[in-house]
Amino acid sequence: MRFLHTADWHIGKKLHGYDLLEEQVDAFQQILAIAKNEEVDAIVVAGDLYDRSVPSVEAIEVFNQMIVEMNLQEKFPVLAISGNHDSSTRLETGGPWFVQSDFHLNTRLDQAFQPVEMGNTQFFLLPYFEPISARLFFDNEEIRTIEQAMQEVIKKMKEQFKPDMAHVLVSHFFVAGSEKSDSETKLMVGGLDTVPLSLLESFDYVALGHLHGKNALQAENARYSGSPLKFSLSEMNQKKGVWIVDTQPSETTFEFKELTPLRDVKQIEGGFKELTSQTFYDSINRENYLHIQLTDRAVIPNMMNQLRKIYPRVIGVERLFGREERQKQTETKKEVKTLAPVELVDQFFSEVTGESLTQQQQRWIEENLGAIHQAERGK
């Protein structure tokens, strides 16, 4: 059997405030074209269909159209799971109807033990879950980590294995030895979300989602497809695409098919005069998402507005020299406890969203902090 492995679509995600829906639709059309050219028997989507648990109306419309084209119009069976960015409760709405058109969408742990059989392959669709879900399902209070949970999960899956078929696990978690990028969840406490690669040995192929780089894991039987788009500057040099997987009676093989971004993520460097000269900006694709490294030492009035007139999708400006760079270095050395409350909020907001607070947002925070301070003094 031949299938296409993709993941981490993150429909509705923004890149430093820029809407990516157009890029996501373009990437999907390329994925669909690859599926048709490679004559795959099914399409696997290993989680994080949406970027947030409550996606925007626009994101839902885009995703619905993708499913219509992929499953109803082109007649590809689709095997998908919910990821940590998805709301399993919202996604499972309509599930009983979806399977009538070979759209298998698992959002609950208990569904993972009912394999979907296609051709010579059993697919075990394991959605993202927390340890407590396994603790309740197996009625085992000793389950406290994902590793402990996965030991029980895989043991139960193997009970359903048919010896004359290939076995594919579709899941969404962090495998020990993998490498993360800046656009992925950074919080990992005590290794709770880590699964040892050795636990996956029983499967002919493990179609993973969660990490955005295809090279995050180099295993003989397990791969991340990576995201179809670059979602951060740290992914600038990554090749994005999908895996074409063949499950043969004797062995399973897979081949990577690269996607071409509608707008790429790039970094450019130079002085302000050079960057604003037509000779320079005519030599690059100004429609790309650009991180700019400025070599000027002097302060440039209205710098960002002038750059945005030429480069419409600036995702960041970094001073390699000068006052702003020295100030940045000084700020990074400050202990968190020395920062004022408003500074702490601004720092947290910037780390989470990649943007700075607006003046209005700063005023709201100052007003609320002032009210809290007054209330505390009045006690």
UniProtKB/TrEMBL annotation:
Record-annotated Nuclease SbcCD subunit D C-terminal domain positions: 262-352
All residue ranges annotated as the Calcineurin-like phosphoesterase domain in the record: 1-212
Tagged with keyword Hydrolase: yes
NCBIfam families the UniProt entry points to: sbcd
Record note on quaternary structure: Heterodimer of SbcC and SbcD.
Role summary: SbcCD cleaves DNA hairpin structures. These structures can inhibit DNA replication and are intermediates in certain DNA recombination reactions. The complex acts as a 3'->5' double strand exonuclease that can open hairpins. It also has a 5' single-strand endonuclease activity.
Descriptive protein name: Nuclease SbcCD subunit D
Organism listed in the record: Enterococcus moraviensis ATCC BAA-383
